Amino acid sequence: MSVSTLITTYVNPDLDGIAGITAYAEFLQKTGQNAVVGTIDELSDETKYVLARFDFEYPMSISNSDDFDEVILVDTSDLNGLEGKITPEKVIEIIDHRKVHEADRFPNAKKVQIELVGAAATLVAEKFMEKQMEISQKSAILICAAIISNTHNFKGSVTTDRDRKAFEWLNQFAKLPENLWREMFLAKSDLSGHKLTETIRKEFAWFVMGDKKVGIAQLEVLEAKKLLEERGQEILQILEQTKKDMALDLIFQNTVAIEEEKNYFVTNDEQVQKLLEKIFDIKFIGTVAEKPGLMMRKQIVPLLKVELE
Asked: pLDDT tens digits, residue range 130-165?
């Protein structure tokens, strides 16, 4: 009886996760292995936009790993992000790009690749490049779009030369429309009505740091300042309710202002404000503090851990 292998990413995946698992499944199939791509819960709005934009089918939706013998994880190595839906003992391989990870909590993961690049999908692209293997236009488009998204069109501080090199090589096959980056960011910036609450909750992550349970919301949007001016109180209410529901000690939002190339930290918790002021040398005015540059949650978490542990 053949072994069934699932390639998946974290619950409510973003574009990087979808690109990574789609392309890695193709890579394995072309090297004589077989695996099924599956995702858990709802895709991000940006991912939905890119799939619809190029008329790509959605990946198969699954509820958990029960029907599979083995699991490969791409763009995740955090048990919290899997929400108990993936059996850790089934995980045989991990590909991720976060400095803070939990790869050691997957006892049977014999292959672990954790490297600090802008997009996890870049690591998958490099596998094709190293073997000089042909890649489908679909996988090339998805990885290129993921690199654009994760590096904020190569302006983010997470961007590496490896991301740029992978993008350049892939775009020979992808041939992306020149303005795709703006289309993608507009798609993820639509937070009208109830979408604001849904997006904050879907993009939310929590971590244990020392004796604290810390929650970090993250929004990556155009016109971030306008959003905070018009709906800042609503954001604070969502954060407060989330803190209560999840029994968190600390909570804040990292708002990534893509066009302004800065971050807005949002919280009404004085303890969190003092912590962020100390780490980033910033100053809160009311409930908001600005920081130049584009910094992602994956970069913030290690700095918080050092301070809290």
From this structure: 999 999 999 999 999 999 999 999 999 899 999 999
Answer whether 16's CB lies under 8 Å from 114's CB: no
**Amino acid identity, position 170:** L
Residues 86, 210, single domain; the answer is: no
The number of domains in the chain is 2
Look at residues 153, 184, 215 and tell me which one is the last residue of a structural domain: 184
Phi/psi for 58 (5° steps) reads -70, 150
Measured CA distances, 211 to 1, 78, 125, 162, 248 (Å): 47, 18, 39, 37, 11
Residue type, 154: F
CB of 221 closer than 8 Å to CB of 258: yes
Cα gap 75→168, rounded to integer Å: 21
CB of 263 closer than 8 Å to CB of 255:
yes
Find, among 78, 32, 94, the residue nearest to 208 by Cα: 78
Q: What tokens were used for 120? A: 């996890």
How many C-beta atoms surround the C-beta of residue 18 within 10 A? 29
With a cut of 70, list the residues of the chain below it in pLDDT.
Answer: 1-2
> Distance between CA 282 and CA 88 in Å, rounded?
39
Residue 252 and residue 234 in one domain: yes
Comparing CA positions, the residue from 18, 92, 30, 47 lying closest to residue 199 is 47
Tell me how long the chain is.
Answer: 309
